[in-house]
Amino acid sequence: MSKPNYTGVYNMISQDNFEEYLAALDVNYALRKVVCILKPSKHIEHDVNTGRMKIKTVTTFKNFDMDFTLGQEFTEDLGPVDGRKCQTTVDWDGDKLICVQRGEKEGRGWTHWLEGNILHLELRAQGVTAKQVFKKVE
């Protein structure tokens, strides 16, 4: 079974429990309020042959870039949320992308999956889970 190609531009259509997730990351109150009103878009380039991915999260406040190869650990700049770094690995679990982040917060990571033109993002940290949903720009 071939893996899905995540390439595309996706606009956020909903989010749930995001402020609680940011609080679990020790993001200060004022920044949490700002981040929660943003409506980010995701610009994803995915080379299915090499496993190379670029995920750019774009907001009016600050952009966040990830550039990695699936299955290879890299140092991630946690950027707009808290400015810290961690060791990150993103790999397949079936047709979902699973991210594990080590060295910053216990149980931190995320899962991406596609359902048609809908991109789901589940974020985890310190036992708190948040969800964002994006729709592909046609």
Explain what the structure shows.
- There is one protein chain.
- With 138 residues, the chain is mostly beta strands.
- The protein has a single domain, classed as Lipocalin (Beta Barrel).
- The protein contains three helices and ten strands; from the N terminus they run E-H-H-E-E-E-E-H-E-E-E-E-E.
- It has helices at 18-24, 29-37, 79-82, and strands at residues 8-16, 41-47, 52-58, 64-69, 74-77, 85-93, 96-102, 109-115, 118-125, 128-136.
- A ten-stranded antiparallel beta sheet has the order 4-3-2-1-10-9-8-7-6-5.
- Helix 1 (18-24) runs antiparallel to helix 2 (29-37).
- The two termini are 25 Å apart.
- The relative contact order is 0.23.
- The mean pLDDT is 90.
- It comes from Danio rerio.
- One of its GO terms (cellular component) is nucleus.
- GO terms for molecular function: fatty acid binding.
- InterPro entries: Calycin, Fatty_acid-bd, ILBP, Lipocln_cytosolic_FA-bd_dom.
- Belongs to the calycin superfamily. Fatty-acid binding protein (FABP) family.
